UniProtKB/TrEMBL annotation:
This is Iron ABC transporter permease. It is found in: Cell membrane. Belongs to the binding-protein-dependent transport system permease family. FecCD subfamily. Keywords: Cell membrane, Membrane, Transmembrane, Transmembrane helix, Transport. The keyword Cell membrane applies. GO terms for molecular function: transmembrane transporter activity. The keyword Nuclease does not apply. GO terms for cellular component: plasma membrane. One of its GO terms (biological process) is siderophore-iron import into cell. Its main location: membrane. It comes from the Bacteria.
Length: 334
């Protein structure tokens, strides 16, 4: 644990918030179109309708806010899932929740011609819920009941199945293929601020709900028997965690597509800084998750310039080695 005292944790959180603001500003400034800090300021104080000012206000500012909100949501969802399942590999992407939400949205686009955010939101939540319930039920089958390794395998199976269904649907509508494939890779490019506004209430409920139950999550992390002995209603806490994960993951997929690995990587980074107290882990994870996705999105603009790759590809590049490290460490500990 890097920060041991309460004062150091508060100072660290303040520094992290300022770092987040810096990355959001960098996201507004840097990219294929050459802009500067002065141009960004002038776009608000002396707007002249130039191409640079239009790009800053209508493209980059929404993109920065969307990346920050989605990164924070996925990171907090990862913390919740890892605590609930006691599995260091748990995340919305690994457990098939992203794939379930993505399948629901693609189904709506290809079969029912749904292209509005209200429809995407409802279907993304529905798909995330179905995936979460499926993984939990499959992982609970057998004499040993629910175990971390069974949950991981169930999540991988559900994710693969839903992804296969999604690809099959894309064959039925080649006209939407390019648009949907870019969305499925996970991207915050080309999204409008209204898109974020439509899902922000669900994200907000997820953020504040996670903070409200953070103390109870500390008790739950001690073990089922200990938590019950201390008077915790473990069933209610688990249901609450499941609902919050669906809200956070479903809203994130609706606005940016299924972006993987953020929810798995960030909780581990956060615990190495703050320790295991969820009252600190959750706010730190939200800020660090936002910073990570912003940094990945900025990097994605430069790798193949003038083209850019989806931010989901960047998070996979970052997250895959980390996934292998955590998996090997977990299995070696057995």
């Amino acid at each position: 644990m890097l920060l041991k005292s309460t004062l150091m944790k508060w100072l660290g959180l303040v520094v992290a918030v300022f770092l987040l603001i810096g990355f959001m500003c960098a996201s507004v400034i840097y990219g294929y179109t050459d802009t500067s800090w002065q141009m960004a300021i002038d776009s608000f104080t002396h707007y002249n309708g130039s191409n640079e000012h239009i790009i800053i206000q209508t493209v980059r500012i929404p993109r920065a806010f969307i990346a920050a909100a989605v990164g924070a949501s996925l990171a907090i969802a990862g913390v919740l899932m890892q605590t609930l399942t006691k599995n260091p590999l748990a995340s919305p992407g690994i457990f098939g929740i992203n794939a379930g939400a993505g399948l629901a949205v693609v189904t709506a686009m290809t079969l029912f011609s749904v292209h509005n955010m209200q429809g995407f939101n409802a279907l993304a939540f529905l798909g995330a819920t179905v995936a979460a319930i499926s993984v939990y039920v499959i992982g609970s089958i057998g004499r040993e009941g629910l175990t971390p390794i069974k949950l991981t395998l169930a999540g991988a199976a559900i994710s693969a199945m839903f992804s296969s269904f999604t690809q099959a649907l894309l064959v039925l509508d080649e006209a939407l293929l390019d648009q949907v494939l870019f969305w499925l890779a996970g991207s915050v490019s080309g999204r409008k601020l209204e898109t974020l506004v439509s899902v922000l209430p669900y994200m907000g409920i997820g953020w504040f709900g996670a903070l409200l139950i953070s103390g109870k999550m500390n008790v739950l992390a001690m073990g089922e028997d200990v938590a019950k002995g201390l008077g915790l209603n473990t069933g209610l806490v688990k249901i609450s965690i499941g609902v919050l994960v669906v809200l956070l993951a479903g809203a994130s997929v609706a606005v940016a597509g299924p972006i993987g690995f953020v929810g798995m990587v960030v909780p581990h980074i956060t615990r190495s800084i703050t320790g295991i107290d969820h009252r600190w882990v959750i706010p730190y994870a939200g800020v660090i998750g936002a910073i990570l996705l912003l940094a990945a999105d900025i990097a994605a603009r430069y790798i193949l310039m003038p083209s850019e790759i989806p931010v989901g590809v960047m998070t996979a590049i970052i997250g895959t080695p980390f996934f292998i490290y955590i998996a090997r460490r977990g299995f070696n500990a057995r």
